[in-house]
Amino acid sequence: MRLPSGLGPWSESLSSLTPELALALGPLVRGVDRLVSGQNPARPGPGTLNGFEGVTTHGHPELMLVSEWLLADEAPDEFLRRAAQRELLHLAPAVHTPTARGRVAVLADTGPAQAGAGRLVQLACMIVLHRRAATLGTELAVGILGRTPGDWHTGDLPELLKTWLDSRGPADSDADDVSAWTRDIAHGDDVWILTGPRLSAKLHGRRRVVSSRESAWGEHGATHVRVTCDDSGAELALPPGPIAVRALRGREFRREPAPGRRESAPAGTPEVPGTLRFPIFPSSAWRILARGATSAELVSIHVPQTPGRGPVRKRLHRLEGPVLAASALGKRIVAVIESDGRLRVQVIGHPLGRVASMSVPVEAAGLDMDDVHQICAEGLVPLYYQSGDVICPLRDGRWWRLAQDGGAVRTDLVTVGPATSEQFDQPHHVTHGPHGKHVSIPRLWAPIEPQDDTVILGGGGYARSADARTWHVVHPNGSRAIITIEPRSHVLGLVFDGREPVLVTSGPGGVLLRLVRRSGTVTLTGWSGSPAPPVIHPTLPLIAALDDTGRLKAGNLVTGKILLHTAAGA
Length: 570
Description:
- Among the domains are: about 5-25 and about 100-250, no CATH class; about 50-95, no CATH class.
- It has 10 helices and 36 strands.
- The strands form 9 sheets. Strands 4-3-5-6-7-8 form a 6-stranded mixed β-sheet, sandwiched between helices. It has a 4-stranded antiparallel β-sheet with strand order 9-10-11-12, with no helix packed on it.
């Protein structure tokens, strides 16, 4: 069953419910969302201009491409035709929007007074606030009034709904419970209280309090509720009696199968991936991409910025063909796939310029189908977006540019890495062309001499070495340092601890991992001996690796904290 378009914004959150309950709860969800959003819009802020992220067919005249203005001089009739058809190309501004610092936190009153209609309103609020958290780029945390203050629950929505459903309290909550829970709330957390009129009256002056009471009745009980949020209120319809009763008993919730039990997931619901292969940090985001069980599957995992933020949320994406390269660019995943003997770009999420229309014959990129199969059987590699084109390494580390006109050009790029900001359309890179080797980083553009030096990018800076032992490191602010590593060691990545450069190295055989600074060397015992070399984040001091059981863990190299560790077989 497909949800109506009016419920589209909440489709991901409503997927935790059966389609029947999602439809029945729809009017209540929309009404609650109007109250919540009307008083507290889920917008991180207007954002600031931060360069450009490709081309678009609309925009201000001053952003129109120079080639289009040239067309106005050379072929004015064609220029007018394109203008009338809205085909003129403009630079698309990139807007940097600050992400929320805190969580969306829900305090639910589950006492006897909230039984029945009150619980249905709370369910609708959980759906609305789950979407709010996703919009703000943060997570939903649920606390139960009457239980131990500070015992917040986080994780996927089905788990949170089960916790909430099983938390019926024997007594109604009071203002002291609210004070105990909110006394030590983290700075920046967006706290919402779900209760009834008795407790809300005692919380006078506190914002983000959603209160409900029954307002109309029919043959089978309450049919409408009066819901208030801060200074606004509305009378909203409840789901019909039979399905409402089943919902309150938990019979209309979708849940993960118990351990050891296999069940087919309902259509349209994300599956929890069972296989992770070749994880990488593909961009400046706090996100890991990995291959799934097949070459046409990608697994996306968000890395929490602090430990202890609940279960890891993983998403499995099945693409339209085998994946050669992929990256997380802004609020989307972009992948180069093979389909019918052609290289295509598939975008999951927000559109990205015109890359989705790219279609390049495999042969145009110097490949045959055996090469494609070999690439897809090996580790995942990142791609980058620049000037409306996609660039990625295809074979033997050679970087190719896939253009919107269907062409493929081998570049003189040697190394490419993301910018440290969210501006993903201007990657840092090293080129080696007829005029020598150069590193291209804002404020750090420089030739590399001698040209045979090896160059690595990391943390917004770079390092070069002639003998793979003595490394000349350049900080993003331009300061320089020299770091010497052990003989026969290999550099995995460059990170910065504030202003201090740090090289991450593996010893002979790739067994021992070390952090090498000018001041000394530290062995990373907990990260040594992995079946495959760990991966280092290109802009942040993060590390990730699969252990010999297939579990993925990620951590902070500077603080030493483990930020995530997936369950075995998950």
